[in-house]
Amino acid sequence: MPRASGPLAEALAHRAVLLDGGLSNQLAAQGCDLSGDLWSGRVLAEHPDQVAAAHTAYVRAGAEVLITASYQVGYEAFAAHGHDRAETTALLRRSVRLAARTAEAADHEVWVAASVGPYGAVLADGSEYRGRYGLSVRALAAFHRPRIEALLAAGPDVLAVETIPDTDEAEALLTVLAETGAPAWLSYTVAAGRTRAGQPLDEAFALAAASPEVIAVGVNCCDPADVLPALEAAAAVTTKPLLAYPNDGSVWNATTRTWHTPDDPVPWPTRAWHAAGARLIGGCCRIGPDRIAALGALPADRRP
């Protein structure tokens, strides 16, 4: 079956759609080395077959959306490791092609979402969980514009503007999206009822409410306990479909480059998420194909 037969936005008007899970943890499970500042981008550059294998694992688990391996691919970061602009552009486009080939080989409809990670991701210092980089909205837009243009040239179904920690960066990204007209979802990373930078969630979600390019809005890479309050805040300011793909409740330590796992598993009240308006549901860091398969086996949680 060749990819998805229609726009993702149309599907979301009728049903919920299952996202994939964390790419980095699946690559690690496959034995890939993710050490160094380039993280999964290094695997994309050196072992693209492993990226394709990770996508395949999620498709076999039932995922209907594959998020590309472009999250941490940035021109400045890759230049520091010897990649010129043409090589980095090629890697961004490769990430889309790898996911598209997997989607085309699937036995069910699969959309390709090109990951646009935050500025903090390419710094590789955990600042995507803090935001407030000291850059203006204009500077952030200038950073994101060439990455988005390169990804769009490869023809993804949608842009996954994800793990955004503050409203300044969201404003910058929405500016670039308006220039392109490309469909996208906007996903914040949040904690304790606010963005990671500490802004009120109603203000954050309201930024996307009036954007015709944004087909869904919500949260990712956050504690599952933070999902429902965030969805409720989003539903209060927008009628757009909502999305949720949290991590497993672990906390990232950028100094040691390790995850601190909670003592007890954090519940995933997916029925409540769906009732609050979530139509794109999946997982982020440390959520693998088994968890995605389990989500897909809950049709009552996935259908309006």
From TrEMBL:
PROSITE patterns: HCY, PROKAR_LIPOPROTEIN. This is Homocysteine S-methyltransferase. The gene is mmuM. Keywords: Metal-binding, Methyltransferase, Transferase, Zinc. Its EC number is 2.1.1.10. The keyword DNA damage does not apply. It comes from Streptomyces virginiae (Streptomyces cinnamonensis). The keyword Cell membrane does not apply. Gene3D superfamilies: Homocysteine-binding-like domain. It is an enzyme of class 2 (transferase). Residues 5-299 form the Hcy-binding domain.
